[in-house]
Hints:
9 helices; binds S-adenosylmethionine; 214 residues; Rossmann fold
Amino acid sequence: MRLRNKPWARDFMAEHPDVLLAEPKKMNNGWRDLFGNDHQIHVEVGTGMGQFIIGMAIANPDINYIGIEHFDNVIVSALEKAIEADKPSNLRLFRANGVELAEIFSKGEIDRVYLNFSDPWPKTRHAKRRLTHETFLKLYESVLIPAGEIHFKTDNRGLFEYSLVSMSDYGMKLRYVSLDLHAEMPEDNIMTEYEEKFSAKGQPIYRLESQFSN
Ligand code: SAM
């Protein structure tokens, strides 16, 4: 993703603490209190410009959604979209690296992890950075409910193949696999920005749902 310098981003983000949290590590097991209900919490790691997580929040008001993005210059675009969408009350965003998940959520605090068009890191020496690497699976498991789920979409065949093996080696159950999501196009599919871009070029979209075994 190309990053434009946005010197105004920090101030703008600070003006909307009702959507964009400045200090997620201080939540201290308080996510359900923050949302004010016991609904499920679904988290997208690498949310980019937010189209997916905001679309999901609008489509499913009885689920709470959290979008996590590494870069200020990117999450600020998600914040702008959330404001345009009148700030759905079941949506929160914050800037963080996925490696920090266990400092932000307690065990069992979230119900599902979404990974959409994660950076593929094709070089073997960068495999540990892939969001479906064993170290990330361990992290997700440490914050998910027992038998929590990962839902993953990508245009990148190499990353998809790698992820199938990584999840299988980890002992996860595959609940759904599609090698061409758009051939089926489930009614409830919410497209991400990257999904729109790649599917417009005729590239197949791969999708899986997997579940931890405990
Ligand atoms: N999910 C969006 C979509 O499908 O349109 C964005 C996809 S983009 C290729 C990947 C995004 O994930 C980038 O915005 C990147 O900054 C973010 N990202 C990559 N690694 C991350 C990490 N470890 N923690 C948080 N965000 C990450």
